[in-house]
């Protein structure tokens, strides 16, 4: 059999005997003895792994499998630091904001496209068709480990082309490569689950409902990037990051409206975070009375050093209410993006979701830039020498590792927990901006409001964890 772990948590594989037999596949031409052996093995396997099925014969996962895996939190940490650097990189690029947003999404779409091709290949078993067309001599040269992961390998070629000696040798190598019977059982158990997942993906992938949700989610993501990247030119990096990561407040409100289970601690934590945002807003209301002209000079992305494509680091933007409001609107957009993602990502593989959404958002921002911005830069100007390094950095780290990492774990971790974790992005991103030189030190009220935001973040995270623990015990 072939088994490939999707980042989405879905594993695409075709089992050696159980799934093909239970679904009455006609492409298996084993002898009667082999069929009898497979039947006996299946009965023993079901007893050993204690598979639970519903009335329709579908596999029911144990509650233990629903626990949040450790790797999800590890990805969350890496994604947090990658995304924290996004604002610094964007402020370093000398281009109009909407154009920068489109470049960020275009370059990320290029990376995601390869992941999409990979997942579609595995879902529709195109890899098996490729193997079938390879010459027998070439296939036999492949390492045994690769051969063993293809189910029903003896049917990849005509039976009359294989000698009995070859079959015995392959079976012997197959047994030698199994570390234990337990490992084999676990693989077969995953096969049962993942064959079901693959059929579900095929049936839902091109449904009208799925396409409409992807289209709407892509447009919402485009609005999010448009609001946020423009806010980077209208307010400080610290303020932009603080307000754009305030989505937990809105998420909790949505959960309350939907009457979803939520603890008092989560509500109190989000209230503390909201108080912190209000305190931080005082910088824009009271401390922006002076030097307005110096701040406005850096709004249009025209502070480059010659033709380097890098912004003049001496031009530091002051906080503004307008810029803070734009960032807040970006937070509102991300709420809908997260909920739509959690709906689709329950069954949709990572790149089948991430690529169309990101590509649609890239088209949206590109059109918005062409309509609203006047610039001599080309819509695909990110491939030119002054911009390609920073744009590729945005695609690989904040884009692929950051946002795609978040998409990968959204089926394991609740949206409110992911959003609250992202509240750590403002202090981390602001520190990065100060070290790089694109941002000055945070202003007075930002220092006061920041601890409230971080304290609210910790309270919501801990309260959510406790609530999930209680639900698992019930």
TrEMBL record:
Transmembrane intervals: 70-90, 110-127, 211-230, 236-256, 268-287, 325-344, 351-372, 378-400, 412-438, 444-462
Matching InterPro entries: EamA_dom, EmrE-like
Residues forming coiled coils: 164-209
Cleavable signal peptide: none
Keyword ATP-binding: no
GO cellular component, one term: membrane
Pfam families the UniProt entry points to: EamA
Keywords: Coiled coil, Membrane, Transmembrane, Transmembrane helix
Top-level division of the source organism's lineage: Eukaryota
Residue span(s) of domain EamA: 322-461
Protein name as catalogued: EamA domain-containing protein
């Amino acid at each position: 059999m072939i088994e490939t772990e999707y980042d989405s948590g879905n594993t695409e594989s075709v089992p050696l005997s159980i799934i093909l037999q239970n679904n009455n596949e006609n492409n298996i031409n084993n002898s009667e003895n082999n069929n009898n052996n497979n039947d006996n093995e299946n009965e023993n396997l079901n007893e050993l792994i204690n598979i639970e099925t519903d009335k329709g014969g579908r596999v029911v996962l144990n509650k233990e499998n629903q626990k949040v895996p450790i790797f999800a939190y590890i990805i969350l940490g890496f994604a947090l630091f990658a995304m924290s650097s996004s604002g610094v990189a964007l402020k370093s690029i000398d281009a109009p904001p909407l154009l920068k947003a489109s470049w960020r999404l275009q370059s990320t779409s290029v990376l995601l496209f390869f992941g999409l091709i990979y997942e579609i290949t595995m879902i529709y078993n195109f890899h098996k068709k490729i193997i079938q067309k390879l010459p027998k001599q070439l296939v036999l040269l492949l390492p045994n480990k690769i051969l063993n992961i293809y189910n029903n390998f003896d049917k990849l070629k005509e039976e009359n082309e294989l000698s009995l000696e070859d079959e015995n040798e392959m079976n012997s190598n197959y047994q030698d490569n199994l570390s234990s019977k337990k490992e084999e059982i676990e693989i077969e158990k995953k096969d049962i689950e993942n064959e079901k997942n693959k059929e579900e993906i095929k049936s839902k992938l091109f449904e009208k409902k799925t396409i409409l949700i992807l289209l709407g989610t892509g447009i919402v993501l485009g609005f999010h990037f448009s609001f946020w990247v423009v806010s980077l030119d209208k307010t400080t990096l610290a303020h932009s990051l603080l307000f754009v990561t305030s989505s937990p407040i809105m998420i909790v409100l949505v959960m309350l409206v939907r009457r979803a289970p939520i603890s008092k601690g989560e509500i109190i934590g989000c209230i503390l975070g909201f108080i912190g945002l209000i305190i931080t807003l005082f910088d824009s209301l009271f401390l922006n009375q002076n030097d307005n002209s110096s701040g406005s000079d850096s709004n249009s992305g025209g502070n480059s050093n010659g033709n380097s494509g890098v912004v003049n680091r001496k031009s530091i933007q002051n906080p503004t209410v307008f810029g803070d409001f734009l960032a807040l609107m970006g937070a509102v957009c991300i709420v809908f993006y997260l909920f739509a993602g959690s709906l689709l990502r329950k069954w949709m593989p990572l790149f089948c979701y991430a690529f169309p959404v990101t590509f649609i958002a890239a088209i949206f921002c590109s059109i918005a830039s062409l309509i609203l911005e006047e610039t001599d830069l080309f819509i695909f100007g990110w491939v030119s020498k002054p911009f390609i390094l920073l744009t590729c950095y945005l695609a690989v780290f904040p884009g692929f590792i950051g946002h795609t990492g978040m998409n990968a774990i959204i089926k394991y971790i609740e949206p409110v927990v992911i959003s609250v974790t992202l509240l750590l992005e403002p202090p981390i991103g602001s520190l990065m901006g100060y070290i790089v030189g694109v941002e000055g030190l945070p202003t007075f009220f930002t220092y006061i409001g920041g601890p409230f935001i971080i304290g609210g973040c910790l309270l919501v995270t801990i309260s959510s964890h406790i609530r999930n623990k209680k639900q698992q015990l019930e």
